[in-house]
Amino acid sequence: MRQPFIQASLWLLFCIVFLMFFTVVGHLIAGAIFSSEKTYERGTEIAGITVEGLTEEEARQGLFDRIEEWQKNVTIDFVILDESVQIRGEEIEFDVERALNEAWDARQVELYALVKRPIVESYLQELQKYTVASQVDMEQLGAHVAEDVRSLQMPQENYQLNDFFITKLEERVVAEVTLEGVSSMYVRNWVQALDGYEIEPQQLFSLHEVLKEVNVHVNDRQGLTILATAFYQLFGQTNFELMERHTSVVLPTYANVGYAAAGSFELDFKAYNPNANAYRLHTSYEHEKLHFSLEGKEFIYTYSLAVDNIEEIEPRTIIQYASKRMRGDQQLIRTGKKGYRADVYQLVHYRDGTLRNRVKLSSDYYPAVHHIEERGLLTRQNEDVESERSTESTDSNDSSVTEENQDETDEQNSTELDSTSGQSSSNNDEDAPSKVKGEE
Q: Which ranges does the record mark as transmembrane (predicted)?
């Protein structure tokens, strides 16, 4: 009885195990044979992301998730001088389908990026200060960015647009100026020290600080004005921003109105270099001729100074009366000079010569230097004395009285003239009071 029961139980257990094994193994075999979805082999990676054992759809979804995460954390900056525009990561596309197809035959596959030209153009159109979209090689710029972000790499910090110009910017002399009739005993040494000085990118150029940097002793106001004028004219031909410039009350002989700057121990001249590259100064001084030039990469536009609305101010004549001069005597002791009032602009042109912008820099004013004319002093009291002298012969007794009165009068006139002369000398460094001609 017992043995048949054990045999039946073993036979039943065998049948159960057999059925389970057949079901599982058969399912796996059938799935492997009849399934239409393949999986990627062991060790397969796309952009460093493992896809082994995944179907194409599973790998696709995994890549999309990683791309979305990358796009949220990435921005790309296009920079031109001190202006920039930022492209969002969502604008960068990746060729997922190409990567999935290549992964069937290769174990390490790149995920290629695509930066479409219309996207780049639309962003560059947003630049306000520098309209350079037409000068940029869009295909080259897009391809460069796409290569940098291939396989979800991080892009470089920024992309300088002038590196992708169709016409490349060359290294050359970008500005130069010559001042003639310049005389200063210190300028020669200063100019020698400044020759070869480099103005670094994004550097604020201060005349005072640079002279200290090149170890020269600054002790000449006239020399500072000469250098300030030269640098003002030089940087006016560049995109350097003029931060500080002063003018004097007298226009120097070596500069025209609108083209001069003043310097002193208190007054500085400053300009800012907004470019991503340095510029080198070349300076010389010979035979009272000062020459400055600036060497470096060409600018996007061309720059020049221009003066408009020039108004000449005619000098007036200041009349001074002097007791030392005879009646009717007069002499011009100072010749005046015209004054000026004018507006100063910086003109910005495209490289083809078309005017792009006209920026007002300042309104310069130089007061006129008036003529000074000196005349003999004539008062009413002098005429009365002459009249009294002409009637002395009419009466001897009265003449005696008249002579006494005349002596008193002469003494009084002498006192008044001396007092007037002293007052004029203290106020005008002359011998008598003065007035402007036409107001007598």
A: 12-34
